[in-house]
């Protein structure tokens, strides 16, 4: 696949970022609360950083390294946040990363977007595992991953140095067969039966890094 598709969920369109999103990315991701619980979002979020980040997307998707989506509301097309996969092609595995701008918190957007990206990762990219990590002091992220069906695999103690402080991170993951298993049953659905988000061709193909 050479171009990132658009994924549709009941309330959201997940689409490639465009340079015209840069101002909104800077405003939303520039909130200190976003940098506080993520590993790769700079703070302060200076002018030009969003453009630079968005400018890497197309090449990184084409090379199979990353797939980044802008989370936008269907109703008014406003940017809500970002979600994406950093792909380890040799292992058929990817790391899920995301942020939602503070005005959008607590409305289920991240979980809704996450389900679509997992469906894309397993259904379209044919990954065998998707994993993610979060700080124990960020229970909202832990809950998102739990709602996505991820299993807590362990704690990496004092694994990250964040603002001069060593912090634990919790690692979670979901395997391909777990994703395709009917929730709450022991039977497995056929892969074709599993609901995948609708995709449509799109004129911009971009990827990135959360
Ligand atoms: C983590 C984040 C993406 C969640 O986005 P969101 O759109 O608000 O998430 P959702 O609404 O889909 O789900 C959040 C869940 O966490 C729960 N939650 C929120 N705060 C919580 C808390 N302090 N303790 C426990 N659960 C909490 C919510 O109730 C909800 O669960 P529910 O649907 O069972 O009620 C958002 O807070 C964010 O962007 N934070 C900053 C960046 C970040 O931390 N990114 C992730 C890095 S690992």
UniProtKB/TrEMBL annotation:
One example GO MF annotation = protein-N-terminal-alanine acetyltransferase activity
One Pfam family from the UniProt entry?
Answer: Acetyltransf_3
Keyword Transferase assigned to the entry: answer is: yes
Q: Which domain of life is it from?
A: Bacteria
Instruction: Indicate the segments forming the N-acetyltransferase domain, all copies.
Output: 12-172
Work out whether the entry's keyword set contains Transferase.
yes
Where are the annotated segments for Disordered?
Answer: 185-210
Q: What is this protein called?
A: GCN5-related N-acetyltransferase
List the GO cellular component terms: cytoplasm
Keyword vocabulary terms for this entry: Transferase
Q: Which residue ranges have biased composition labelled Basic and acidic residues?
A: 188-210
Q: Per the UniProt entry, what species is this protein from, by scientific name? A: Aminomonas paucivorans DSM 12260
């Amino acid at each position: 696949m050479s171009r990132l598709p658009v994924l549709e969920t009941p309330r959201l369109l997940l689409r490639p970022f465009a340079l015209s999103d840069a101002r909104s990315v800077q405003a939303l991701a520039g909130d200190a609360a976003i940098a506080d619980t993520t590993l790769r979002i700079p703070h302060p979020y200076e002018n030009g950083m969003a453009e630079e980040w968005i400018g890497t997307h197309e090449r990184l998707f084409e090379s199979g390294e990353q797939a980044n989506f802008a989370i936008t509301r269907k109703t008014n097309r406003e940017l809500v946040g970002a979600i994406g996969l950093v792909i380890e092609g040799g292992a058929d595995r990817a790391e899920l990363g995301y942020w939602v701008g503070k005005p959008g918190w607590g409305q289920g957007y991240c979980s809704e977007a996450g389900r679509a990206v997992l469906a894309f990762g397993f259904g379209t990219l044919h990954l065998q595992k998707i994993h993610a990590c979060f700080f124990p002091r960020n229970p909202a992220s832990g809950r998102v991953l739990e709602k996505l069906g991820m299993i807590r695999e362990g704690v990496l103690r004092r694994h990250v140095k964040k603002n001069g402080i060593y912090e634990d991170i919790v690692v979670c993951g979901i395997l391909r067969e777990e994703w395709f298993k009917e929730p709450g049953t022991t039977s497995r659905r056929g892969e074709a039966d599993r609901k995948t988000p609708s995709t449509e061709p799109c004129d911009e193909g971009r990827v990135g890094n959360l």
